[in-house]
Amino acid sequence: MGLSTHVLDTMHGTPAAGMAVELYATSGEQATLLQSFTLNEDGRNANGLLIGHDALKQGTYRLVFDVAGYFAARGVALPEPNFLNRVSLDFGVADVTAHYHVPLLVSPWSYSTYRGS
Predict the structure, then answer these.
(1) Is-contact 25 16, C-beta < 8 A?
(2) Which domains, from first to last, does the chain contain?
(3) Which stretch of DSSP H or E encloses residue 73?
């Protein structure tokens, strides 16, 4: 079923359009960049799934969200240094036949995630 993500800006109550995101495959401390993309007006990858159902492999992954860059671009006055800069989410894929949706709810001061559907 593949891998997807969605980011909601809880400060403004909107999708995080324009946020830069990176996806890595990980193995221990090693991380291999699979792709970089910018979220569309719905806070999602414009190309749909990050990894399609036929290409998703069992293993560990990392999504890195440029939170500080996004809020700075929105004109939010951020302290220096920022409380949140880049949020990294490490997660595992055990069942390649399932859909893994990794949403992020974020403000300049907090974030939350869960395994969505």
Answers:
(1) no
(2) 2-113 (2.60.40.180)
(3) helix 67-73
Q: What is the DSSP string of the chain?
A: -EEEEEEEETTTTEE-TT-EEEEEEEETTEEEEEEEEEB-TTSBBTTS-SB-TTT--SEEEEEEEEHHHHHHHTT----SS-S-SEEEEEEEE--TTSEEEEEEEE-SS-EEE--B-
Positions in the chain whose pLDDT score sits under 70: none
Instruction: Report yes or no: 91 and 61 within 8 Å, Cβ to Cβ.
Output: yes
Give 47-68 pLDDT, tens digit per residue.
999 999 999 999 999 999 999 9
pLDDT at res. 117 = 84
pTM higher than 0.90 for the full model?
yes
